[in-house]
Amino acid sequence: MDSWGRDPAVVRALDPALAVASRWWRLHVEGVERVPAEGGVLIVANGGGAFPWAPLLIARALPRPARLLADPRVFSLPFLTVAARRLGAVPAHDANAERALAEGEVVVAVLPRGRGGPYEVGRFDLAAVAVAAGAPVVPCAVVGPEEAGVVPWPVRWRIEFGDAIDLRTYRPTQATDAAALLEGAETVRDRIQAMVHDNLVRREGALF
Amino acid sequence: MASRRVLITGLANFWGTRLAAQLADDPGVEHVVGLDDRAPAAALPGRVTFVEGDLRSPDIVHVLRAAAPQVVVHNAMVQFAGEGRSSRTVHDLNVVGTLQLLAACDSVPTVKAVVVRASAAIYGSAPGDPAFFTEDMASTRSSQTRFQRDLAELEGYVASFARRHPAVTCTVMRFQPVVGPTLDTPITRLFRAPVFPAVLGFDPRIQLLHEDDSVDALAAAVRTPVKGAVNVGGPDVVALSRMLRHLRRPAVPIPHAIYMTVAGALLRPTGARLTEDFPPFLRHGRAVDTRRLTEELGVHPRPTMEAVA
């Protein structure tokens, strides 16, 4: 177990279950090679669905262990908090994301669902953190969890990693340039939204 | 810095006695004056003078003027009631005591540095916390417990003193829970108890500090005071379950709702009285970043597992 509380043995123990889930959902993963092999990387994906399958399946697809930013409320629930920590989850606090990125780790953030319904990507508010840590942002689209629901229907899943975005290019003068950061954050959100739509089309039907 | 004369408050407590003894052996220290409202239990080395006085009374300004120290170590902070001190007295000692001491320092021009023994409990323990607190994060916390409020007030006074006196270096040492073979606190009693009352469904990340390292950290701050707060704790963070397995100590998991009642009864034979700070700490734990301690003060405490063993 490392100092953050992640236990590789527990991560390994969950792997067979995730392998079964991947088969059941006919998961197709694309673009893992676009995730930089070294240094801090912030992976930002669209969220949705009842159970946090997306971050777990994203983490499983990655070649190196990841820190998963999770809702702080999870850590007030008995047993669940222990399981989450062991699997690499940390409370979604800017300080946690920035520290992990600065230590050269992969951090997975799942955005909330936007107001527009399923597959509408919500706000991305970690732009300042990525800039401060000097870490590239990898947009990631996940298609499937919105249909999987509470009953895990055997819908098709796709996870696609996009090209890394360097948000520092949106920082003309200073680190706290709010307008530039907002523009960078919108770019990330738009990219994920476009990738989600693209994958919904390329999936060719959720079930058949 | 040539710390010629040192004044230590809370001389009779563990850190006061040990720090005075360590400084008495230091050739760079000319004299140590120890202030406390009760006499130290052990005999003092030759270069240490004990002055009896209540920190809360304005008279301590005379002690400070007479002692004319270059370094003031404010070590009178009390975490736990007991030993004839009510929780009301503890609050008074921490808050009024600090206020009076700093007010006295205002009028003693020889003071060049103030070192304060404080606690990392100022960060509290909450579910959504940063995994590692850095020194700048204390001000963003809301105080949940009485002790946390005391610490916030105490540090607030030190910060405003530091603003008034830019030439005086004020160091605040934020200790993680201190454990060791000789120290006797509810914390050490909890970690020594034959069974450990844990909170059911939680496995906090724990970072502890060995008693010898805590004294060394204070001595290092007296030798080379640095401005601002310094986190003091072991280099590692371990899960409570792993620590207990390492110690071969059985854990008794108690549901949070009845924790204080059951754990209190369980620990009664050891004499440890738990405070409201314990349940959140044993649910969510707390870890701090110790880079300032190692890089600027050059103190390298032993790992948590060794400290608690």
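The first strand of chain A starts at residue 28 and ends at 30.
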